[in-house]
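Memo subject: From amino acid sequence to discrete backbone structure tokens
Action wanted: Derive the backbone structure tokens from the amino acid sequence.
How to read it: Take the token row as a discrete description of the fold.
Attached in line: The record itself begins immediately under this heading.
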Amino acid sequence: MKRATFLQLVNVIGIDLAKISVCVLVLRVVDKAGTKFSRCLWANIVLVSAVHIAEIIVILVQCIPLKAAWNPNVKGKYGDSRLKFQVLYIENGFDAFTDLTCAVIPVYLFQRLQMNRRTKIALCCLMGLGAITAVCAVVKSVYTKDFHTPDYTWTFRKPAVWFIAEILLGIVLASMPALKPIFDKAFHLS
């Protein structure tokens, strides 16, 4: 349970940083196109960060002292476990919304750019991959209902796969500027 608690914190921080990175990448494209898109992305960054900070706080105060969460010999106060799951559902919803926003805004903007059709399609497909991370967030929510079992560490294995997939896709999406030369050579885009 000690490792599970630590890994929950790592997952939340990892997903938050991946979301912020993708939003900042999209901001680099959007800043030149219009302020309403920039405001939307900044609002996403603030809201997702606030939700993830709330989730971290809930994880850290689930048991006081926290050591009572994994050590049955330590007496402690236990919080309402339903709160943890409600925050997780809210987090997954905001994650999905952020992913869809970061996928749709660039696709909308790229359609208006004057560039090679092949390049435009490749860019739209790559940025559209953000929609897959939204699917990861929804699937995590579906598996969250199974956490009410006595040994949630065993039931956590299914959503853990989706947590990891979401983080890794976020890293790939945020790394797109560095991947451009590879795509240019592979698809003869330039």
In short: Residues 81-112 form the longest helix (32 residues). The beta strands are 63-64, 77-78. Residues 1 and 159 are 16 Å apart (CA to CA). The chain has a mean pLDDT of 81.
